[in-house]
Amino acid sequence: MVTLSWPLAAPAPEDMRWLHVEDPSAVAACRAAAAALASRLRFPEARGDELALAVTEAASNLHKHARQGTLLLRIGRDGGTPGIELVTIDAGPGFGDAAKAMRDGHSTSGTLGIGLGAIRRLADFCDLYSVPGHGTVLAARFWPQRQQITVLCAGLLRPITGETECGDNFAAVRDGGILTGVLCDGLGHGPLAASAAAEAVAAVLDDTGHEPAALVERAHRRMNHTRGGAIGVVQVAGQIARFSGLGNITATLLADGSRKNMLSVPGIAGHQARTIRQYEYEVAPGTSIVLHSDGISPRWEAAALPGLTARDPLVVAAVVLAEAGTRRDDAGVLVLKP
């Protein structure tokens, strides 16, 4: 088992594809997108075929069984050798026994029910999360050569409808025993918002050997030539989390079906910051730390998502996006599992 290397960085726009799966033709489009990414990364032919088959099964399941299904394919470059991640989210109807659904032969609609079991066998990692009355999330990872990797942090970006470049950005890095995560929401949408968010993230990553308030202050100064944005920085050392936020980044401690929000202060990074403050919180074992932009409603309920915090951080990020994301804004979410 290998632990994912650092830093964790948001994918470039050309490294990810969100595809709506609302009719049969979308299944072929998803398969073609998977084949194109596999070719870019020079996957061995047999491994590329396995990826294409898994993506075809995932897209077919969305078309047949889900509402408002969406499939993400992206290149992950944080594990040394680049790999491909597959995520599907939908708006329901959901089901209660995800483990049973992953077994070959199980079906909820009278079909053979081999799709999810095939994805589990073909992927290096695969997990499914579903709750009746809510959406379903599937997450899988594929490497050119099979390997098992432990992931401690993950993030997702989804641009507003009509844009290819997301105005949100994230990163995470471990320096000694300190885990630092940053999420920035550039003001507005499109390339200028993306540039502002990238400037903020780069400012934080330049030197993470300072506390969150100092990192936010540095990002605020660096962003003064951009349109600005909202930023949140969290650092975790042992069982203590320190958070500093400027603007409307939501930061949450998620544990045991409950959530505790961390405090941010009003302002616009790069333009308006009367006071930059830092707050300290205790982190119980098993807690996930979730940061997200206002493209995700802060009103999602942890109690409606039992067992979520025990899942892979990519699954947690996708569930939060599926539960509360909006198409009327860029959406960004970062999950840390210290």
Top keywords for this entry?
Heat Shock Protein 90; 18 strands; 2 domains; Phosphatase 2c, domain 1; alpha+beta; 338 residues; 7 helices; 5-stranded antiparallel β-sheet
| Computed Rg | 19 Å
The number of domains: 2
Largest sheet: 6 strands, antiparallel
Which class of secondary structure composition applies to the elements?
Answer: alpha+beta
In terms of DSSP E residues, the strand content is 25-35%
**Topology, number of strands:** 18
**CATH-assigned fold name of the largest domain:** Phosphatase 2c, domain 1
What helical percentage do the residues reach?
Answer: 25-40%
Q: Tell me, what's the shape? A: globular
Mean pLDDT: 91
As residue ranges, the low-confidence spans are 105-114
Q: What is the count of helical runs?
A: 7
Listing every helix as H and every strand as E from the N terminus to the C terminus, the arrangement reads EEEHHEEHHEEEEEEHHEEEEEEHE
User: Strands of the biggest beta sheet: in what spatial order?
Assistant: 2-10-11-12-13-16
* CATH-defined superfamily of the largest domain: PPM-type phosphatase domain
Main CATH class of the largest domain: Alpha Beta
What's the CATH architecture of the largest domain? 4-Layer Sandwich
Give the N-to-C terminal Cα separation: 17 Å
